[in-house]
Structures are given as C-alpha cells and as structure tokens.
Amino acid sequence: MPAAQIDKESFVPYYHQLKEILSDQIRQGVYQPDELLPSENQLCETYGVSRATVRKALGELALEGLVYTVKGKGTFVAKPKLEQSLFRFYALGRDLRSRGLDLTSRILKQSVVRLSKEVAQRLKVPEGERAAEVRRVRLVDGAPLAVETSYVVGEAVDELVRADLGVASIYDVVERATGKVVAGAEEYLEPVIVDAYEAELLHCDAGMPAFHIERLAYFDEERPFELRTSLIRGDRFRFFVRLR
C-alpha cells in the first residue's frame, strides 16, 4: 500500500493529487529511469480513481518530461532532464560533450546566403551581407533535443560551409578560421509551443512546451558575428540559476 493516498475531501483535483504522488515517487527513486510504471488499471485500483483521472495525471507528467509512453507497452519513467546554468557563457555542443554525452547534428541547410534586412540589423551589418546559414537538428544519444538556425558573418563563412558540422562545433570552426576566441553572448529566452513541423523534426507531439532562444555571439563588445535561434525540447532540458 503506497504511503500517500488521494484525499477525497480536498479541493485539489484528483488528477493533480495523483500527479504529485507519482512525481514524488519518481524523484525519490521509487521508480528508476526507463522503468515501467504500474498500468492504468493498477493505478485506478491502488488510488481509487477513474481511468480518466489516471490518464490526465500521466499526461501532465509527460508534459513535465517525467514520463514517456510506448504504444502497446505502457508508461515509463524518463531520464533526468539535461541542465544548463545561465550564470556563465556556454556552448551547448561543447558542454554536452564535456559531460560524456554523444552529441551529433543532422544538417538541414548549410550554405552561403545574403542576409535579409531583419537579420542584418540584428548583426549590425548592411542588408544583403554575405553570411553562412546553418540549420540543424541537434541529437543527444541519437534522440533529437533541439533545432537550431545560425547566421554567421565575417572571415569564417566559407570555412563553415565546407566543415562537417554533423560532428563539429560551429564555434570551434569559427575560432580556427579567425584566430579569435568567442568571448560572450546575449540570450533571450521565452516559452513557446512546438508546431507540427517542429514536432516532426524533434520527434515529439505538436503542442509540447519548448524553449525558444535567440543568441547574439561576440568576439568583443562591438558587433556580433552570429545570430542563432534555438528551439529546445522542454521535456528534456531545463536551465537554472544559483541565487545568493
């Protein structure tokens, strides 16, 4: 018999209570990553609730990235989310590789373009400036994590178009080509909902929460060399800050 039960006298909806119970059990290690949770029927019987309540609770857990469903098999505990501190400059690829994760990219576009007025203004260059455009799906251990689009101006344009960006870091290529070090960036984060096309690229459901990030990267304080937009799955990633 579980330690926690549904409080039938509470004003808190049953599905939310069940979600919190299961969430606590996952975080406490009662259920391990990739372990199968009890079936819907078992949860109904254990907690004295309807199947609709169980399904809604499991759906909420899935949106939070704590569980995932395999058709015909059931609901499993998800691996812990990847985390990134916002207290320092980071390069997603470099940071994930430094943790021993297998990060690769599926290239959607890699070519020389002439910048639109909007992108050129963000990069503080004339409209029509020559740039490298790189669009890619970033994969961790073979599973899609993010969709990124980068516009890079300056000396590294041709090198970026030739490089194998399926495995190489854009910043590594840029630093080699220019002899300069990426010194910092400005980032703008906001929550968004994944549309149907993005969901297809990220292998997730349309309507899933995600992070939309716009980054301007600099060698110095004068003018950015890169404008990057990223869409990162909210069920697999989270940012954190340490407050003092």
Number of strands: 10
**CATH homologous superfamily placement of the largest domain:** Chorismate lyase-like
Average pLDDT score: 89
At CATH level 2, the architecture of the largest domain is 3-Layer(aba) Sandwich
Structural class: alpha+beta
Instruction: Give the low-confidence spans.
Output: none
End-to-end separation: 41 Å
So how many helices? 8
Report on this model:
It is a single chain. The protein is α+β, with helices and mostly antiparallel strands. It folds into two domains: 14-77, Winged helix-like DNA-binding domain superfamily/Winged helix DNA-binding domain (Arc Repressor Mutant, subunit A, Orthogonal Bundle); 82-240, Chorismate lyase-like (Chorismate lyase, 3-Layer(aba) Sandwich), CATH 3.40.1410. 29% of the residues lie in helices and 32% in strands. It contains eight helices and ten strands. The chain has helices spanning 14-27, 40-47, 51-63, 92-98, 117-123, 157-162, 170-178, 196-202; strands spanning 67-70, 74-77, 82-85, 103-114, 130-140, 143-152, 184-193, 209-218, 224-233, 237-240. The strands form three sheets. A six-stranded antiparallel β-sheet has the order 4-5-6-9-8-7. Strands 1-2 form a two-stranded antiparallel ribbon. A hairpin with a 5-residue loop joins β8 and β9 (224-233). α1 (14-27) packs across α3. It is elongated and about 65 Å long. The model has no long low-confidence stretch (mean pLDDT 89).
